[in-house]
Amino acid sequence: MSNSSALSADRVLAVLEMLVRMSEGVSLSRIAQELDLPLSATHRLLTVLVNRNYARQNPATEQYEPTLAIATLGIRLLANTRLSDVYQPILDELAEETGELVRLAVLDGEKLTWIARAQGATSSIRYDPVSGHDVPLHATAMGKAWLATLPEQEALRVATAAGFTGAAGPNAVASAAELAAHLREARERGYGLVNEEAEPGISAIAMVVRDGSTDAPVGCISIGGPSFRLSEAKLESFVPKLRAAVDELSALWPVRTYQARNLQERSFPSSPR
Questions:
Q1: Which residues contact 211 (CB under 8 A, 6 or more apart)?
Q2: pTM higher than 0.85 for the full model?
Protein backbone atom coordinates (compact mmCIF):
# COMPACT_ATOMS: atom_id res chain seq x y z
CA MET A 1 0.00 0.00 0.00
CA SER A 2 1.37 3.42 -0.94
CA ASN A 3 1.84 6.17 1.63
CA SER A 4 -1.05 8.13 0.13
CA SER A 5 -3.37 5.12 0.32
CA ALA A 6 -2.40 4.47 3.94
CA LEU A 7 -3.02 8.14 4.76
CA SER A 8 -6.45 8.03 3.10
CA ALA A 9 -7.35 4.86 5.01
CA ASP A 10 -6.26 6.48 8.27
CA ARG A 11 -8.31 9.57 7.54
CA VAL A 12 -11.49 7.70 6.66
CA LEU A 13 -11.22 5.69 9.86
CA ALA A 14 -10.72 8.90 11.86
CA VAL A 15 -13.88 10.33 10.29
CA LEU A 16 -15.77 7.12 11.02
CA GLU A 17 -14.68 7.16 14.68
CA MET A 18 -15.75 10.79 15.01
CA LEU A 19 -19.18 10.00 13.54
CA VAL A 20 -19.67 7.23 16.08
CA ARG A 21 -18.50 9.48 18.92
CA MET A 22 -20.92 12.23 17.82
CA SER A 23 -23.74 10.00 16.64
CA GLU A 24 -26.39 12.70 17.07
CA GLY A 25 -24.95 14.36 13.96
CA VAL A 26 -21.96 16.51 13.05
CA SER A 27 -21.34 19.04 10.32
CA LEU A 28 -18.80 18.78 7.53
CA SER A 29 -16.99 21.88 8.76
CA ARG A 30 -16.65 20.58 12.32
CA ILE A 31 -15.26 17.25 11.15
CA ALA A 32 -12.72 19.06 9.00
CA GLN A 33 -11.78 21.42 11.82
CA GLU A 34 -11.37 18.78 14.55
CA LEU A 35 -9.44 16.38 12.32
CA ASP A 36 -7.40 19.20 10.75
CA LEU A 37 -8.42 18.25 7.21
CA PRO A 38 -9.27 20.36 4.17
CA LEU A 39 -13.00 20.71 3.54
CA SER A 40 -12.70 19.15 0.09
CA ALA A 41 -10.83 16.10 1.42
CA THR A 42 -13.30 15.70 4.28
CA HIS A 43 -16.20 15.78 1.82
CA ARG A 44 -14.57 13.07 -0.30
CA LEU A 45 -14.08 10.84 2.74
CA LEU A 46 -17.68 11.33 3.82
CA THR A 47 -18.85 10.53 0.32
CA VAL A 48 -17.03 7.19 0.50
CA LEU A 49 -18.71 6.38 3.82
CA VAL A 50 -22.13 7.42 2.53
CA ASN A 51 -21.71 5.34 -0.63
CA ARG A 52 -20.72 2.32 1.49
CA ASN A 53 -23.73 2.92 3.77
CA TYR A 54 -21.65 3.58 6.88
CA ALA A 55 -22.88 7.18 7.07
CA ARG A 56 -25.83 9.27 5.98
CA GLN A 57 -26.50 12.98 5.61
CA ASN A 58 -29.59 14.16 7.43
CA PRO A 59 -31.59 16.12 4.81
CA ALA A 60 -33.11 18.39 7.46
CA THR A 61 -29.90 19.42 9.23
CA GLU A 62 -27.32 18.54 6.54
CA GLN A 63 -25.27 16.95 9.31
CA TYR A 64 -23.63 13.56 8.94
CA GLU A 65 -24.65 10.60 11.08
CA PRO A 66 -23.42 7.01 11.38
CA THR A 67 -25.64 4.15 10.28
CA LEU A 68 -26.34 0.80 11.90
CA ALA A 69 -24.06 -0.84 9.33
CA ILE A 70 -21.21 -0.02 11.72
CA ALA A 71 -22.90 -1.83 14.60
CA THR A 72 -23.64 -4.76 12.31
CA LEU A 73 -19.93 -5.33 11.80
CA GLY A 74 -19.41 -5.68 15.53
CA ILE A 75 -22.40 -7.99 15.91
CA ARG A 76 -21.12 -10.21 13.12
CA LEU A 77 -17.67 -10.34 14.71
CA LEU A 78 -19.10 -11.42 18.05
CA ALA A 79 -21.26 -14.04 16.36
CA ASN A 80 -18.33 -15.43 14.40
CA THR A 81 -16.10 -15.69 17.47
CA ARG A 82 -18.98 -17.28 19.43
CA LEU A 83 -17.87 -15.25 22.43
CA SER A 84 -21.50 -14.75 23.45
CA ASP A 85 -21.82 -18.50 23.99
CA VAL A 86 -19.23 -18.10 26.74
CA TYR A 87 -20.10 -14.84 28.44
CA GLN A 88 -23.90 -14.67 28.46
CA PRO A 89 -24.57 -17.61 30.83
CA ILE A 90 -21.96 -16.21 33.23
CA LEU A 91 -23.52 -12.73 33.15
CA ASP A 92 -27.03 -14.16 33.56
CA GLU A 93 -26.04 -16.17 36.63
CA LEU A 94 -24.26 -13.24 38.27
CA ALA A 95 -27.23 -10.93 37.62
CA GLU A 96 -29.60 -13.45 39.19
CA GLU A 97 -27.36 -13.87 42.24
CA THR A 98 -26.92 -10.15 42.86
CA GLY A 99 -30.28 -8.81 41.71
CA GLU A 100 -28.61 -5.97 39.83
CA LEU A 101 -27.42 -5.07 36.33
CA VAL A 102 -24.31 -6.92 35.19
CA ARG A 103 -22.34 -5.68 32.19
CA LEU A 104 -19.36 -6.87 30.17
CA ALA A 105 -16.94 -4.61 28.32
CA VAL A 106 -14.09 -5.77 26.10
CA LEU A 107 -10.73 -4.11 25.70
CA ASP A 108 -9.85 -2.78 22.25
CA GLY A 109 -6.50 -1.04 22.25
CA GLU A 110 -6.87 1.73 24.81
CA LYS A 111 -10.67 1.61 24.90
CA LEU A 112 -13.26 -0.40 26.76
CA THR A 113 -16.54 -0.98 24.92
CA TRP A 114 -19.72 -2.30 26.53
CA ILE A 115 -20.94 -5.29 24.54
CA ALA A 116 -23.36 -7.24 26.76
CA ARG A 117 -25.48 -7.14 29.87
CA ALA A 118 -27.83 -9.15 32.05
CA GLN A 119 -30.54 -7.56 34.19
CA GLY A 120 -31.09 -9.08 37.61
CA ALA A 121 -33.29 -6.38 39.16
CA THR A 122 -36.92 -7.39 39.54
CA SER A 123 -38.31 -4.19 41.03
CA SER A 124 -39.66 -1.29 39.00
CA ILE A 125 -36.58 0.77 39.93
CA ARG A 126 -33.72 -0.57 37.90
CA TYR A 127 -30.62 0.60 36.10
CA ASP A 128 -30.99 -0.29 32.43
CA PRO A 129 -28.67 1.74 30.15
CA VAL A 130 -27.85 1.07 26.51
CA SER A 131 -24.70 -0.96 25.81
CA GLY A 132 -22.48 -0.73 22.75
CA HIS A 133 -20.44 2.41 23.29
CA ASP A 134 -17.10 3.31 24.82
CA VAL A 135 -16.70 3.28 28.59
CA PRO A 136 -15.72 6.62 30.22
CA LEU A 137 -12.46 5.42 31.73
CA HIS A 138 -12.08 8.02 34.49
CA ALA A 139 -15.61 7.78 35.89
CA THR A 140 -16.64 4.12 35.78
CA ALA A 141 -15.80 1.12 37.93
CA MET A 142 -14.73 -0.72 34.78
CA GLY A 143 -12.44 2.08 33.66
CA LYS A 144 -10.79 2.34 37.04
CA ALA A 145 -10.42 -1.44 37.38
CA TRP A 146 -8.61 -1.63 34.03
CA LEU A 147 -6.53 1.53 34.43
CA ALA A 148 -5.36 0.22 37.81
CA THR A 149 -3.67 -2.71 36.02
CA LEU A 150 -1.38 -0.25 34.19
CA PRO A 151 1.65 1.59 35.58
CA GLU A 152 0.38 4.87 37.04
CA GLN A 153 1.90 7.21 34.46
CA GLU A 154 0.66 5.02 31.60
CA ALA A 155 -2.83 4.91 33.12
CA LEU A 156 -2.92 8.69 33.47
CA ARG A 157 -1.70 9.12 29.89
CA VAL A 158 -4.49 6.87 28.58
CA ALA A 159 -7.16 8.56 30.70
CA THR A 160 -5.99 12.05 29.76
CA ALA A 161 -5.96 11.14 26.07
CA ALA A 162 -9.53 9.85 26.37
CA GLY A 163 -10.49 13.05 28.17
CA PHE A 164 -12.27 13.76 31.45
CA THR A 165 -15.60 13.99 29.68
CA GLY A 166 -18.61 11.76 29.05
CA ALA A 167 -19.61 11.63 32.72
CA ALA A 168 -22.56 13.41 34.33
CA GLY A 169 -22.32 12.30 37.95
CA PRO A 170 -21.65 14.85 40.72
CA ASN A 171 -18.66 12.90 42.05
CA ALA A 172 -16.82 12.40 38.75
CA VAL A 173 -13.09 13.03 38.95
CA ALA A 174 -11.91 16.00 36.93
CA SER A 175 -8.14 15.84 37.14
CA ALA A 176 -5.26 13.44 36.69
CA ALA A 177 -4.16 13.92 40.31
CA GLU A 178 -7.60 12.97 41.64
CA LEU A 179 -7.79 9.98 39.33
CA ALA A 180 -4.34 8.79 40.43
CA ALA A 181 -5.58 8.58 44.03
CA HIS A 182 -8.63 6.57 42.93
CA LEU A 183 -6.45 4.19 40.93
CA ARG A 184 -4.16 3.56 43.87
CA GLU A 185 -7.21 2.54 45.90
CA ALA A 186 -8.48 0.30 43.09
CA ARG A 187 -5.04 -1.30 42.75
CA GLU A 188 -4.95 -2.12 46.46
CA ARG A 189 -8.50 -3.48 46.52
CA GLY A 190 -8.31 -5.41 43.28
CA TYR A 191 -11.49 -3.84 41.88
CA GLY A 192 -12.96 -0.50 40.87
CA LEU A 193 -15.73 1.31 42.77
CA VAL A 194 -17.77 4.36 41.78
CA ASN A 195 -20.53 6.29 43.50
CA GLU A 196 -22.42 8.74 41.28
CA GLU A 197 -19.49 9.41 38.97
CA ALA A 198 -20.53 8.31 35.49
CA GLU A 199 -24.21 9.02 36.20
CA PRO A 200 -26.20 10.65 39.01
CA GLY A 201 -27.72 8.14 41.40
CA ILE A 202 -25.74 5.14 40.12
CA SER A 203 -23.03 3.12 41.89
CA ALA A 204 -21.02 0.17 40.62
CA ILE A 205 -18.19 -2.27 41.22
CA ALA A 206 -16.03 -3.92 38.52
CA MET A 207 -13.18 -6.37 38.09
CA VAL A 208 -10.86 -7.09 35.19
CA VAL A 209 -11.23 -10.21 33.04
CA ARG A 210 -7.89 -11.66 31.94
CA ASP A 211 -6.89 -14.07 29.21
CA GLY A 212 -6.21 -17.24 31.15
CA SER A 213 -3.24 -18.18 28.99
CA THR A 214 -1.39 -14.84 29.05
CA ASP A 215 -2.89 -13.05 32.08
CA ALA A 216 -3.37 -9.99 29.87
CA PRO A 217 -6.51 -7.88 30.56
CA VAL A 218 -9.19 -8.50 27.92
CA GLY A 219 -12.23 -6.83 29.46
CA CYS A 220 -14.20 -6.09 32.62
CA ILE A 221 -17.38 -7.24 34.36
CA SER A 222 -19.36 -4.78 36.47
CA ILE A 223 -22.33 -4.86 38.80
CA GLY A 224 -24.27 -1.62 39.06
CA GLY A 225 -27.54 -0.09 40.10
CA PRO A 226 -29.24 2.72 42.03
CA SER A 227 -27.03 4.18 44.75
CA PHE A 228 -29.81 4.19 47.34
CA ARG A 229 -29.64 0.41 47.52
CA LEU A 230 -25.98 -0.06 46.60
CA SER A 231 -23.88 1.32 49.41
CA GLU A 232 -20.13 0.69 49.34
CA ALA A 233 -20.62 -2.12 51.86
CA LYS A 234 -23.32 -3.69 49.67
CA LEU A 235 -21.15 -3.49 46.57
CA GLU A 236 -18.23 -5.04 48.43
CA SER A 237 -20.49 -7.92 49.50
CA PHE A 238 -20.66 -8.82 45.80
CA VAL A 239 -16.87 -9.29 45.59
CA PRO A 240 -16.83 -13.11 45.98
CA LYS A 241 -19.55 -13.63 43.36
CA LEU A 242 -17.99 -11.10 40.99
CA ARG A 243 -14.55 -12.65 41.37
CA ALA A 244 -15.97 -16.13 40.68
CA ALA A 245 -17.61 -14.87 37.47
CA VAL A 246 -14.43 -13.10 36.37
CA ASP A 247 -12.32 -16.17 37.08
CA GLU A 248 -14.72 -18.40 35.14
CA LEU A 249 -14.73 -16.15 32.08
CA SER A 250 -10.95 -15.68 32.28
CA ALA A 251 -10.46 -19.45 32.30
CA LEU A 252 -12.74 -19.93 29.29
CA TRP A 253 -11.34 -17.06 27.21
CA PRO A 254 -8.28 -18.86 25.77
CA VAL A 255 -10.27 -22.06 25.28
CA ARG A 256 -12.54 -20.30 22.81
CA THR A 257 -9.54 -18.68 21.13
CA TYR A 258 -7.95 -22.10 20.74
CA GLN A 259 -11.16 -23.66 19.44
CA ALA A 260 -11.63 -20.86 16.91
CA ARG A 261 -8.06 -21.32 15.71
CA ASN A 262 -8.54 -25.06 15.33
CA LEU A 263 -11.77 -24.55 13.43
CA GLN A 264 -10.01 -22.18 11.04
CA GLU A 265 -7.18 -24.63 10.51
CA ARG A 266 -9.66 -27.44 9.75
CA SER A 267 -11.55 -25.22 7.32
CA PHE A 268 -8.38 -24.00 5.57
CA PRO A 269 -5.76 -26.74 5.96
CA SER A 270 -2.21 -25.80 5.19
CA SER A 271 -0.64 -27.13 2.01
CA PRO A 272 1.37 -30.35 2.39
CA ARG A 273 5.08 -29.76 2.59
A1: 217, 218, 250, 253, 254, 257
A2: no
